[in-house]
């Protein structure tokens, strides 16, 4: 019997897996440059953290969580997202004495029991950033700009940014009531009617054409913002424009998690199959209190690593596979192999990336391995050269070949590769 990865999951294998590493680094780099510190939290938490934090009425909590009882009788859930965990950790460890916000970034695996399809997986990877403890439109604008810069650094040109404000505890209840009034008058199925009572904003997100057609006249949250939320949102927009960030106002943008207040945003790309969100986030001023902490107004985002790779592939941004090493050694005999082994070790210790032919495949197989590695240089170790204390250094792009004394190989290569 053989096994396959569970439904909705897959393996990133070389060489394509290099793309994942590159994307993860690039998406995190702008946040790291802006003073965000790295946080790592467990892959599982108490189930209550997510049901209270993410929200009892969300799809994530009602349908998608991997929840089980551990051997100690605790209800445990594999994390479906990172924000609740980060907030839990900050509350648990206490705020550092320094200035707020506490700025944190993370990267890891998340788990949702979703209907599996291209770009939608049951195990996926995110890079996230959260700024905790400050209510300041400049922080919202900073985070959005960092995500925009991350996508841009990867060369992506097809990422669009949608921006909205969902109001606050002051103005949201009146909007919610107005929306419920409107929705109750529509021709909707029983399940959707129930949703109107529990989470009416989610109805706006219903993708079915017969529902969308009825929503044209729905009240918009942006028409119901209180003065403070309006001014806050205006300032976020002004700062984004000043930073050269292009966005589209979308008063219908609602997100799949309940903790959002004020600023919400989503990054979309059209190369992802049935869905289009490569990333998203927003402000969550009430989350800390929802999970038993002090008032800590906060904002953050999470960017999907797998989906960003798909978006880049759709834009043809990875034409050639990256080289695995710079240098590849090809020994022509048993004694040469011992020398090659020592030489490769020396090169690696000198900071070069180097590999060699293993397994006694003969010269042809070894040269093929050198080609496949993508290395720029091959070191060919034959008996005659070795007797003279030298190896042949072959530039695999020009096929030019020169003898180099063994003792000078590392320095010669360093010079050529710098
Ligand atoms: P989210 O919108 O649920 O937000 O997820 C963020 C991103 O993760 C999505 O835009 C998408 O790229 C990726 N993603 C989500 N689910 C899947 C899936 N099943 N398969 C592949 N990729 C997926 C959050 O998770 C919030 N914690 C973001 C946040 C941080 N808000 C404030 N701070």
Automatic annotation (TrEMBL):
NCBIfam families: hisS (TIGR00442). L-histidine binds at residues 81-83, 112, 126, 130, 255, 259-260. HAMAP family: His_tRNA_synth (MF_00127). It comes from Acrocarpospora pleiomorpha. Belongs to the class-II aminoacyl-tRNA synthetase family. Signal peptide: none annotated. The keyword Cell inner membrane does not apply. Residues 22-322 form the Aminoacyl-transfer RNA synthetases class-II family profile domain. Its EC number is 6.1.1.21. GO terms for biological process: histidyl-tRNA aminoacylation. InterPro entries: aa-tRNA-synth_II, aa-tRNA-synth_II/BPL/LPL, Anticodon-bd, Anticodon-bd_dom_sf, His-tRNA-ligase, HisRS-like_core, HisRS/HisZ, HisRS_anticodon. Its main location: cytoplasm. It is found in: Cytoplasm. It catalyses: tRNA(His) + L-histidine + ATP = L-histidyl-tRNA(His) + AMP + diphosphate + H(+). Homodimer. Keywords: Aminoacyl-tRNA synthetase, ATP-binding, Cytoplasm, Ligase, Nucleotide-binding, Protein biosynthesis. GO terms for molecular function: ATP binding; histidine-tRNA ligase activity. One of its GO terms (cellular component) is cytoplasm. The gene is hisS. This is Histidine--tRNA ligase.
């Amino acid at each position: 019997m053989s096994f396959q990865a569970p439904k909705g999951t897959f393996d990133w294998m070389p060489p394509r897996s290099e793309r994942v590493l590159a994307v993860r680094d690039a998406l995190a780099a702008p946040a790291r440059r802006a003073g965000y510190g790295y946080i790592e939290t467990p892959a599982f938490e108490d189930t209550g953290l997510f049901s209270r934090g993410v929200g009892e009425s969300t799809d994530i909590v009602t349908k998608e969580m991997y929840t089980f009882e551990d051997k100690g009788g605790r209800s445990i859930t594999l994390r479906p997202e990172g924000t609740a965990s980060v907030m839990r950790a900050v509350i648990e460890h206490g705020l550092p004495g320094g200035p707020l916000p506490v700025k944190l970034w993370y990267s890891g695996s998340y788990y949702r029991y979703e209907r599996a399809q291209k770009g939608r997986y049951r195990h996926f990877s995110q890079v996230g950033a959260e700024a905790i403890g400050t209510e300041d439109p400049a922080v919202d604008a900073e985070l959005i700009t960092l995500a925009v810069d991350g996508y841009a650094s990867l060369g992506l040109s097809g990422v669009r940014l949608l921006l909205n404000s969902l109001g606050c505890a002051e103005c949201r209840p009146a909007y919610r009531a107005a929306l419920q009034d409107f929705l109750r008058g529509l021709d909707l199925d029983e399940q959707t009617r129930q949703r109107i009572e529990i989470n009416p904003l989610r109805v706006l997100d219903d993708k079915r054409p017969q529902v969308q057609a009825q929503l044209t006249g729905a009240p918009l949250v942006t028409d119901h913002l209180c003065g403070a939320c309006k001014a806050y949102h205006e300032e976020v927009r002004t700062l984004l424009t000043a930073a050269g960030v292009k966005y589209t106002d979308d008063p219908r943008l609602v997100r799949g998690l309940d903790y959002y207040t004020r600023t919400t945003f989503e990054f979309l790309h059209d190369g992802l199959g049935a869905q289009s969100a490569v990333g998203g986030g927003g402000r969550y001023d009430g989350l800390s209190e929802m999970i038993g902490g002090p008032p800590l107004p906060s904002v953050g985002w999470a960017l999907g690593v797998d989906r960003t790779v798909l978006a880049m592939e759709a834009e043809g941004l990875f034409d050639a596979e990256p080289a695995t090493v710079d240098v590849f050694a090809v020994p022509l005999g048993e004694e040469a192999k011992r020398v090659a082994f020592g030489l490769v070790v020396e090169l690696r210790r000198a900071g070069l990336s180097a590999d060699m032919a293993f397994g006694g495949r003969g010269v042809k197989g070894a040269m093929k391995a050198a080609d496949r590695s993508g290395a720029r240089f091959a070191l060919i170790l034959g008996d005659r050269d070795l007797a003279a204390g030298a190896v042949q250094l072959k530039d695999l792009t020009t096929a030019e070949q020169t003898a180099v004394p063994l003792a000078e190989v590392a320095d010669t290569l360093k010079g050529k590769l710098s």
